[in-house]
Amino acid sequence: MTPLLDPLKPYPSARLREAMAGLEAPAGTAPVPLHIGEPKHPTPPVITDALTASLAELEKYPLSAGLPELRQACAGWAARRYDGLQLDPETEILPVLGSREALFSFAQVVLEHVSDDPKPAVVSPNPFYQIYEGATLLGGGEIHFANSRAPRFLPDWSQVPETVWQRTKLVFVCSPDNPSGSVMQLDDWAELFALQDRYGFVIASDECYSEIYFGGNKPIGGLQAAQQLGRSNKGIVMFTSLSKRSNVPGLRSGFVAGDAELLKAFLLYRTYHGSAMSIPVQRASIAAWNDEAHVIENRRLYQEKFDKVLPILQTVFDVRLPDASFYIWLKVPDGDDLAFAKTLWQQAAIQVLPGRFLARDTEHGNPGAGYVRIALVADVETCVKAAQTIAALYRR
């Protein structure tokens, strides 16, 4: 086996299972899974209808570049969503099998490791989506972290040494952020672009939570920020997905957009990688990107959950409405996030994810320690009951 596999760490959910081994929930109590960010709202009929209506097209081999109609639907959505953002569907958009697959494979295209040279560096926020680390290590790179801390929970790029910036090939950003739900503002993008101009790295902008926002405060995207700052999209690739936006995590559908030169290389890689999207999934994706009614209803459901859950938790905890996403990033009272998660499981069968499992230890500490991530993916009633139980346990 390749030695590149050796440094890979278990996924946060696997670490949680290991930490909970031997601990029993109360007898007869059904588990309340709030630890995994898997959307549970019903899949909209506009998507399932389009999928089933095109099943006959399973007899055809799909192209890695996708149907022209799909790329056009993605470009149309981007223009509507990001204030007139203009993307060429022929050269600046590429369908992918969900953002996770694309984030991983894109790193393999960007990173180039010559054995006699120092490893290429990749910079990631911390806490972070673990695929960033795995993609880096399996691409022969070396990962460095910029910790995110209160009150804004956005990466502190000043923690990255100059010697690391000088060999950085790729920077992952996640806005809206997983796990905190924080959103980069235009000034934050300007700061990152200034670093890009100085060091010449590629930006991979993970925006899969961009459509779960509140009060009409649409998160700005990386390509949109570049446009507003009078820049081109050179060196920037945006990653987005239907999983959270449209409640179809099993569809495995999204797209990447941005720098045409990078996407040309990415398409070549994907042609060999064998990651073409089936035509029925493409038809369903076209229907999804062209419809906003179901997305508005999706946001309304999440808003309702936050409106009912946060006041309950705020009677006991220091917790706020995220800028976006369906996560609550909750600061635990005694600072021990793992003990907090164990207590909830043993006392009430409630599953939450300790923040330490979403981050790495650094010389500046582990920025996830002392927090837990709660995913409000269950129905409203379940989320409210869970919040009431959690508050009652810690009000004693």
From TrEMBL:
- Tell me the superkingdom of the source: Bacteria
Cofactor(s) the record lists: pyridoxal 5'-phosphate
* Annotated Gene3D superfamilies: Aspartate Aminotransferase, domain 1 (3.90.1150.10), Type I PLP-dependent aspartate aminotransferase-like (Major domain) (3.40.640.10)
Residues of the Aminotransferase class I/classII large domain: 32-383
A single GO BP term for this record reads: lysine biosynthetic process via diaminopimelate
Which keywords does this Swiss-Prot/TrEMBL entry list? Answer: Aminotransferase, Transferase
Q: Which residues cross the membrane?
A: none
CDD domains attached to this UniProt entry:
AAT_like (cd00609)
Q: Show the InterPro entries listed in the entry.
A: Aminotransferase_I/II_large, DapC_beta/gammaproteobac, LL-DAP_aminotransferase, PyrdxlP-dep_Trfase, PyrdxlP-dep_Trfase_major, PyrdxlP-dep_Trfase_small
One GO MF term attached to the UniProt entry? pyridoxal phosphate binding
NCBIfam families linked to this entry: DapC_gpp
Instruction: Report the protein name in the record.
Output: Putative 8-amino-7-oxononanoate synthase
